Amino acid sequence: MAEKPWDGRFAEKTDAAVEAFTSSIDIDKRLYQYDINGSIAHCKMLARASIITDEESESLIDGLEKIREEIHAGSFEFSDRLEDIHMHIENRLAVHVGSVSRKLHTARSRNDQVALDIRLYLRDMSRKIIYGLAHLRKILVEMAGRNIDVVLPGYTHLQRAQPVLFSHHLMAYYEMFTRDTRRFEEGLQRINVMPLGAAALAGTTYPIDRAYTASLLDFPKISENSMDSVSDRDFIIEFLAAASLCMVHFSRFSEELVLWSSSEFKFIELSDAFSTGSSIMPQKKNPDVPELVRGKTGRVFGSLISLLTLMKSLPLAYNRDMQEDKSPVFDAVETLTACIDIYIRMLPNIKVNQFEMEAAVSTGFLNATDMADYLVCRGMPFREAHACVGKAVSYGLDHKKELHELSLDALRTFSDLINEDIFSELTTRQMIDRRQSYGGTSTDNVSAAIARADKQVTREIKSMTDQ
């Protein structure tokens, strides 16, 4: 076949520097499985529509499967001269099946071909990420269940605020990663649209059967507009936006693990297997895994910005700029999947220091809000109760005592509504278990949330495993 698919129009050979500059094979060769799968479906459709014969289709499919084996075995030769994975496969196909290879590209363009490949790739990767997040969420549920009696300070502004169950804190991340899962599931609906048949931009004159091709490739929907089919990258941007939000959640969790494992907090201890040391300070045990996850968040953000910038001023339809969409996507997918995997491995090995967490709850006037609520329940308006307890806190600071360490006589100087029963209401367990509002940190609430989540995520994992 011709050295280039467009050689008929050109009088000069492509400059070697241009070949190197325009080549994307180092990036898109990982799409070979999807490109071959799409080409096989296309061959079957061409035969069904009598555009090529059954014998020609069988020959082409046999050649494509041989190429798949060569690439898989590592014996396939790649070259900048052939630009991308599509041309490599088409060129090699001529060696295996001869001139009939020229018929493979009938009724399609590289424009709809690459749109198909990236959709097939992102469909698989989205499912892989959804499956990984399900296992991560299951681990969070299991950690929460094991630590249902552990209490730690809840923070606002990174200042101790009110006591919460450690399980409640973990389940907050369960909720975040569940939202991430739903975003990837919803994005999958828009990824899972079949663009093949749009050709370059205007459709094709051949009597193709796009619905049949879609059924072969397991697409539930076919793209409606040929120009949009080849130029749409919204589904990639949406995927990267979901990936970026997911990495935000990983980064926030990572920050807390870094803080909690420090000698200032001592709330947790990371396993030695998921920590590193210092090249100069023998005593150091560094939380490198969460730190790296926190750092890798910027890479995924960068991929999203790259795609938004790439697409923001492109006229319809396909433009060569779009070749630059793959590198950011591949990097984001590899980064996110690596972070999911390392957290699945790391979290079950974390040691929870219950004593240190509960000791931290006992200082810092974390029961001040409960004292205000105590006064409100006895008829004092909340704003007055807030001011009253504020004065009691100030008194406690001056005397280096917590509210529950003050005497009843001292407390009654701030309000005669205070009686002996206040001390039982200022205990950590009472503060926890009185928060019965739906979604609150009471043990009953959190236990019920864990049970619901376990049932939900177990069902999701089973459904994905059975598919």
What does this entry look like structurally?
The chain has helices at residues 16-22, 25-28, 32-48, 54-73, 85-97, 110-146, 166-191, 210-216, 226-231, 234-260, 288-311, 326-346, 354-361, 368-376, 382-398, 408-412, 422-425, 428-433, 443-466, and strands at residues 151-156, 159-165, 193-194, 221-222, 268-269, 351-352. It starts with 15 loop residues before the first helix and ends with a helix. Helix 6 (110-146) packs antiparallel against helix 7, helix 6 packs antiparallel against helix 19 (443-466) and helix 14 (368-376) packs across helix 15. The strands form three sheets. The protein has a two-stranded antiparallel sheet with strand order 1-2. The protein has 19 helices and six strands. The protein has 467 residues and is mostly helical. It is 60% helix and 4% strand. A hairpin with a 2-residue loop joins strand 1 and strand 2. 37% of the residues are buried. The model has no long low-confidence stretch (mean pLDDT 95). It folds into three domains: 7-106, Fumarase/aspartase (N-terminal domain) (Fumarase C, Chain B, domain 1, Orthogonal Bundle), CATH 1.10.275.10; 117-196 and 224-360, Fumarase C, Chain A, domain 2 (Up-down Bundle); 368-426, Orthogonal Bundle (Ribonucleotide Reductase Protein R1, domain 1), CATH 1.10.40.
